[in-house]
Amino acid sequence: MALRKILGMETEFGIFHRRAGDSNPIAASSVLINAYINSLDRSGTASPIPRVGWDFVDETPANDARGLNLFTAMAPEVEIHLVNAVLTNGARYYVDHAHPELSTPECADPLTVVLYDRAAEMILVESMRQANAALPEGEEIVVYKNNSDRKGNSYGTHENYLMDRTTPFSRVVAQIMPHFVTRQIYTGAGKVGSEAVGISSEQVPFQITQRADFFEEQVGLETTLKRPIVNTRDEPHADAKKYRRLHVIVGDANLSQVSTFLKIGPTALVLCLVEDDCLDRTFVLKDPVLAMRQVSYDLSLRRPLELDGGGSITALDMQWEYFRSAQRYAESRGLDCIGGEEVGGEVLRRWEHVLTALESDPMQLADQLDWVAKYRLINGYRERHDLRWNDARMAAMDLQYHDMRPAKSLFSRLGVETLVDDADAAVAMSEPPEDTRAYFRGKCLQKWSDDIVAANWDSMVFDIGDDPLRRVPMMEPTRGTKAHVGSLLAECETSSELLRRLGS
After folding, report:
1. Are 365 and 353 in contact (CB under 8 A)?
2. Strand extents, DSSP E, 65-122
């Protein structure tokens, strides 16, 4: 049976420092994150967020799931000198290249990912508030949840899925590739124009996704150059003999919670089918990289994609094929692999609903999907004012849709459906999920941050005054939960007692 999918998401946010002179995004990102780490709690009493840094000992971004790779030297660099903090909700908040990035804690179902993604947005909003309050008059740091700066640069929103190491990686690649290409029809954030070389605004006035223009390879290790549809980074952050972590880099940053839910849920379920080799049909696209753009540029959702060996299929029809396989899988094997019948059933219901609506009239999903909401907003303005798509105001509205300042955000004015309450997300800003190892990490940080030297996804390092330091491994993502260690953490008064009892 397929493993239960432990899930997570990493979002790189766009950032701009309004000031006299050049804006340095690395410096601005550091100011932003430090402002949050040093912020006071809501009661106004001194309660700084624990300054526990990230432990890089297990960072191996050059490991490739295909084995020996001639391009290993080009793997992403680990930037240990930049701000890198672990939060009490189990998340990681850090400067990644020239962006602030927030990685959610490990989550045990797609709806929990939505909750912690919303909490991440609220953390960024609070970070802006704290940073801007300390900046000189006339300066401001602005954060955007998007994927492109319109200068040829793209920054990512990455997803992570726990998988069984015994599943052949070649099967993972072959069976998930068409899903990544075609799921854009409900996961896209929408974009005015194109940044692909040689493509004009007349050819592509508006497209479904922000990321399709930037993918050049089918399979590969890179994340910033020659981006691949299927990324091969082999860094499980867990027991490498049992698990792999599929690191997905093709998704857009979504503000719509429904789009986020459908980005994570169906993908997790399709990966369960891949592990159990239960897909009813498999498809091989003739040119997946070309198909990525064809899907993104086709608002009609009717363009056929060429299949290897002849024939064709539309993105919508291919998604129906995946859905029907998933539906039959759920009927025969259940949905424990993506969090149980309640959340899993909602994944199937939402998936079927959006495919049905996309088939008849995508515009009826303007209150649910990002690309549809953005298109209706911007196109409505364009038609009222008789503007061309290449008018600068169109690109400005596109950017303002993603503005994280509540008073400036166009998205926040549209009444798009939500799946989680902001009150719950506010709690999730500081409290970890209870059903993954993030619970142990977060609660230890809340109780004993002064005794924790560093932490990462699969271990924590304690300094209890003895020599040497004590590392506590957390190699099983489904252990360290409240059910597993809640009583232990409540009973221990000191970190020394915790380590003693863990050792016994």
Report:
1. no
2. 84-86, 92-96, 99-103
Task: Tell me the CA distances in angstroms from 372 to 84, 258, 354, 363, one per residue in order.
Answer: 36, 12, 11, 6
Is residue 46 pLDDT above 60, yes or no?
Answer: no
What is the pLDDT, as a whole number, of residue 23? Answer: 84
d(CA 175, CA 275): 10
How far, in Å, are 15, 123, 328, 398, 399 from residue 404 at the CA level? 10, 11, 40, 13, 10
Give pLDDT, residue 81: 61
Token pair of 491 as six digits: 């009973």
Cβ–Cβ under 8 Å, residues 464 and 496: yes
Contacts of 179 (CB under 8 A, 6+ apart): 266, 267, 270, 318, 319, 322
The string over 191-210, giving b where at least 16 C-beta atoms fall within 10 Å of a residue's C-beta and e elsewhere, is bbbbbbeeeebeebbbbbbb
Task: Find the mean pLDDT for residues 130-149.
Answer: 95
Reference 454, options 427, 472, 466, 433; nearest CA is: 472
Catalytic annotation present for 96: yes
* Phi and psi angles of residue 235, each rounded to the nearest 5 degrees, phi first: -135, 80
* All structural domains of the chain: 7-426 (3.30.590), 434-503 (no CATH)
- Which listed residue (96, 370, 398, 403) is catalytic? 96
Q: Which residues of 251-264 are buried (b: 16+ CB within 10 A; e: fewer)?
A: bbbbbbbbbbbbbb
Give pLDDT tens digits for 293-318.
999 999 999 999 999 999 999 999 99
How far, CA to CA in Å, does 503 sit from each of 451, 462, 497, 499? 17, 13, 10, 6
Tell me which of 295 and 38 has the higher pLDDT: 295
- At 192-237, the pLDDT tens digits run 999 998 898 889 999 999 999 999 999 998 877 789 999 999 999 9
